[in-house]
Design a protein that fits this description.
The chain is α+β, with helices and mostly antiparallel strands. It has eight helices and four strands. Helices cover 57% and strands 9% of the residues.
Amino acid sequence: MVHYKLHYFALYGRGEPARQLFALAGQPYEDVRISMEDWPKHKAEMPYGQVPVLEVDGEFLPQSNAIYRFLGRQFGYAGETEIEAAQVDMIGDLFQDYFNEYREYFTVAVGFTQGDKEFLFNSVMVPARNKMLRYLSNILRSNGTGFLVGKSVTYADLLLSIHTAGMEGIAPGFSNDFPRILEHRERIESIPQLKEYLAHRPFAPF
């Protein structure tokens, strides 16, 4: 049996899509949650000095999107055809571009840096959110299945539901103007494996 070990902070963040993929698949794994205090001791052990890192039978795989793609394909959550796989990967890459657009707001909102949170929300987060969620709402409407790609859940759906759930904790009402996005999150979080996982996962602030 393959032994999986996921290294990430004791946060949701970029580790959460991998954790939810393991939950969906019912796949046992070792969830190594690193505290901020302990991170300096572990940093040198990680490729590129960053996390998340997935260990697969002792082989280290860094980079968030590479991890999501790998696990999605291993467990069957990366699209059913080559074009669907490409569409799922596209949305994964799009989320990285989106994060780069709102990073300045996010780092202030969670206390990593100093700044005017309200000003940055309105000037940075709102334009990025509106562009992204409108685009994904249009994809949901066009696809017509309740999922972003194909007829079943993929890791692209997890990226969206995790993002909107996390942002609700930082900016309540974050998705209220996007009913398809709200419906999508409810649908994904109602999947039995995820519902069970979400009910029992360790709390994290973001």
